[in-house]
Amino acid sequence: MAIGKASAKAMKSKNSCCILGYSSSSPSPPPSPPRASASAVGPCRRRLRSRPSFAAGVIRRNARCLAALALLYLGGMVMCVGPFSSLVGLLLPPPGSVYRSHEIFHKLWPDIHADNSSAIELETLWTYKRRLKEQRPCLSTIVGQHFGLATGTEANETSGYLIVEANGGLNQQRSAICNAVAVAGILNAILVIPRFEFNGVWRDPSEFGDIYDEDHFIATLNGYVKVIRRLPEEVMERYGHNITNMPNIRVPAWATAKYYRREVFPVMKEQGVIRLAPFANRLSMNVPPHIQLLRCLANFRALRFSSTIAVLADKIVGRMKEKSSRTGGKYVSIHLRFEEDMVAFSCCVYDGGKTEKVELDMIRERGWKGKFKRKDRTILPGLNRLEGKCPLTPLEVGMMLRGMGFDNTTSIYLASGKIYHAERYLTPLLKMFPLIYTKESLATPEELAPFAGYSSRLAAVDYTVCLFSEVFVTTQGGNFPHFLMGHRRFLYGGHSKTLKPDKNKLVLLLQDASISWTSFKLRMEAMLKENDRKGMIVPRVKKFNRKTSIYTYPLPECGCLQQQNDSTHRLMHTWNVESGTGR
Q1: Which member of 33, 334, 362, 559 has the greatest number of CB atoms within 10 A?
Q2: Segment Disordered: which positions (predicted)?
Q3: DSSP-derived secondary structure letter, 536
């Protein structure tokens, strides 16, 4: 019985060693039996020494076998992997998975500060050119005819009213609006001005008319899709003046035009009105050319910011150009996503230690109510960083730009919400680029007062200032940079003029303790050239095989809307030019 207990303890000790990551070559020896008087146990002890039990012999033989197997295993590992020190290396985190950018910055700062090499000329930064194909004139026919939904005299008759509810932030709503125009074209429906759902994250109660010019939207789409502000009274009476009583169709994500014709159109013809809610990403990117045209028309022509937003944005653009007189009025804009909610949501680890972890855990719990504590959710901060999912810190963005050749006289517009621990994380960026401006520093408190508490309206101001910068820097994915890159391609002859860092490469460089400033600069200059080349990419589109977003890559389908050598400022701010209220 004592031998059995000893074997159990030995096996328990072995298992605990395995959990810690290593194994012992033999089980621990059993404890010595308690001592008793010699007269009582002497004969028994002599018998045990002279005639060992069968079980004890088995344990000794098994121990020798286990020891031999362990030695063979270690020998094989040394032959396959290398010296024993290599085995220890397997337990270390992989390169790039740990945030050490602040250490690299402190090491390289003397070289960065003393770097007096020639700075980039913003006027000649973008060198990659591509001859774009001559565009055909835009279609101007009634869209419903292309689907056989109406023929002859019936072509002017609509099938019913379409109500769409857009959710999310500014640019997710923008996507829903453009898709709604396209779906109205597919169904030959009358589109009611889209409704905006109140979002718990953005917390902006703005309606369509608070952000966009309704009159311009309706007039621009006239002849393509009929748009009205509200439903007729007789329709409202039929449903008790309650839109939620109207038939709602839950359309699957990325539904095709064929799906809308087959499943949605018959319901609309029968009921006369339908709701589509939710409506985020409910239309495929692969749709016929005349439907893509509706998306282009809505995005680049019909959606114009309201006068309140346009006037302030126009003033800030003008002030940024004045601040950038050294570079001919050209400036760099950065969409910095190192905000509290984004840092928390990413589940990435920076250099704040235990205090940072406790703080971000609290933010995650407050904002997402246990989402990150589910048993089926595995959080791997190191893997997130290696895969480029971590928001770049202001320090990392600054090092990248200085490495590319932007010097400390570069004027930068920072488009961002509230930066996480701003005083701490913005300090290194300000050391590298002292000429940094925001909407708060360029506008007066009186000018900003009407925007207080309206995140989408403030985002619209940032969107406009970034749109007219010579260089746009995106640091994290999302609808804002995707729409902005596409809009810039549309305005600037197909070139997005955008720096999109290769974060997979960047994290490796910013953890390399042996890297020199010269070596880092060479890598960043190569990254800049690659961004120049990618900025002019035009996807190959053949009928229904589009795999990229038309909002990010608007060409070739939206090319018929481009104006030859026209003022991009006029294209965006027609209201200001016509009314004379802009700068």
Answers
A1: 334
A2: 23-43
A3: T
Per residue in 18-44, pLDDT (tens digit) is 333 333 333 344 444 444 444 444 433
**Any idea which of 74-83, 227-236, 349-358 has the lowest mean pLDDT?**
74-83
Per-residue tokens: 444: 């007066």
C-beta of residue 122 within 8 angstroms of C-beta of residue 330? yes
In angstroms, the CA 460 to CA 462 distance is 5
Q: What is the structure's pLDDT at 370?
A: 83
User: Which residues lie across from 196 on neighbouring strands?
Assistant: 166
- How far apart CA 271 and CA 452 sit, in angstroms, is 42
Integer Cα distance of 570 and 568 in angstroms: 5
* Residue with token string 């840092």: 343
Nearby residues of 343 by Cβ (< 8 Å), 6 or more positions away: 350, 360, 391, 420
Mean of per-residue pLDDT scores for the chain:
82
Q: How far is CA 552 from the centre of its chain?
A: 13
Q: Alpha helix locations (H) across 51-207? A: 54-81, 84-89, 101-114, 170-187
Cα distances (Å, whole numbers) of residue 170 to 202, 308, 333, 346: 9, 16, 18, 21
Q: List beta partners, residue 499.
A: 473
Closest alpha carbon to 260 in 277, 276, 244, 243 = 276
